Amino acid sequence: MHNHHAALEWWPQLLLAAPFLFLFILYGILYFLSFHKRKPWPIHRLLLWNTGLALCLISVIGPLARQAHFDFTAHMTGHLFLGMAGPLLLVLGAPITLLLRTLSVSRARKVSAFLRKPLLRVLTYPILPALLNVGGLWLLYTTSLYQLMHEYMLLHILIHLHVFFAGYLFTASIIYIDPIPHRVSYLTRALVLTGALAGHGILSKYLYAHPPAGVPAEQAQSGSMLMYYGGDAVDLVIIIILCRHWYHAARPRTLHSGQISTGG
Amino acid sequence: MDTKMSISSSIKDRTVEYAGRNLLSGFLFGLGLVAFIDEMVFHQLLHWHHFYDLSTSDAGLVSDGIFHAFSWLATVGSLFMVADLRRRGAWWIKRWIGGLLAGGGLFNLYDGLVQHKVMGLHQIRYGVDLLVYDLTWNIGAVVLLIAGLIIIFQTNKTIRQKGTS
């Protein structure tokens, strides 16, 4: 127990916080540039983005991050912020769209060419992010990885980065807010989402009865219930957005335009 | 051919045209609704059902996880389907309710027989004579299912009549 000090020092916390602070500044600059370009960016996206960053920051630096080292429920709160709620809000901030519209045309082309690279096509096909996301959690909580994470600083940093990136990639591959290299059908995305949610829920209930190494039973129970219901809440929002997009895409196009469009 | 004719006939026939989607939407909503009632009433309000039961088999855990996850998609998705059917003027309430009852009954029966009894997920209630509860649960499910099927068969008849006329 007394070895669990890996990330209690200030600098690993700061190291994990730095990318989010960088993103905060970058998005802010792009936000103001968008006004210069006379293509004003909606403020609600800025708010979603910054709230998402705040949730991620809370989970890697400060009191909750410290508490997470002794308390599984606090750890799970942080995990929900860093791996689910934070990424969802960041995806809703549509950073790629903002980037593309503020860059010059030639640079924007380079970015979109990069986004079409085969690697990104594979990474944004929803099944892989789902496996990275939920598979990573199974690995973390059912092996000794969870305990090792508290002892080795590097592992701590890598796992937290993985949780965030897998969460972001997964969310972005299910709901298309930003342009995506390869669009996948609504049904496929809905089924992958269901599979991931099921894997998440099954793991939560499994942890209720089989606490990760070094976690007292009581903490495992409250932590796993938080994981179960918290995961449900975030995924419910993703489901609603996905269905809304379907509803919009499936609208009957000839219903109101009537005679004009049937003329052809 | 003629726009006017196709519009006036489409208002009449749309429900039949979308009969399958009406059934599917109702079925999914029934499934989602029962799962929601189960979670709200029996887990959260009455506390009869437990989050986890030591008797739970691995198959039970997996089955419960998949159904639980699917129920969210089913609930939200089916309601968006209703909205879609309504904007097309194709919502056939009777057939939809038939689907709802069948979906709800079928899922309750699966929950009551397979998940509770075979997989030992959890019992309906603890510290009571279970037989009464199990019978009520499963007979209720069968009644829902049969009522749903009757309505579906009735609407099938309507489809055939409209198809031939």
UniProtKB/TrEMBL annotation, chain A:
Judging by the UniProt lineage, the source's domain of life is Bacteria
Q: Where are the transmembrane segments?
A: 14-34, 46-65, 80-101, 122-141, 153-177, 189-208, 228-247
UniProt keywords, alphabetically: Cell membrane, Membrane, Transmembrane, Transmembrane helix
| Listed Pfam families | Caa3_CtaG
* Protein name (database record): Putative membrane protein
**Subcellular location per the Swiss-Prot or TrEMBL entry:** Cell membrane
Please tell me whether the keyword Cell membrane is annotated for this protein. yes
This protein's GO cellular component annotations are:
plasma membrane
Does the record's keyword annotation contain Transmembrane helix?
yes
Automatic annotation (TrEMBL), chain B:
**What Pfam families has UniProt attached to this entry?**
DUF2243
Q: Which InterPro entries match?
A: DUF2243_membrane
Q: Which UniProt keyword terms apply here? A: Membrane, Transmembrane, Transmembrane helix
Where do the TM regions start and end? 21-46, 66-85, 92-110, 130-153
Q: Does the keyword Nucleus apply?
A: no
**Ion transport keyword on record:** no
Q: What is the recorded name of this protein?
A: Putative membrane protein
This chain's source organism reads Sinobaca qinghaiensis
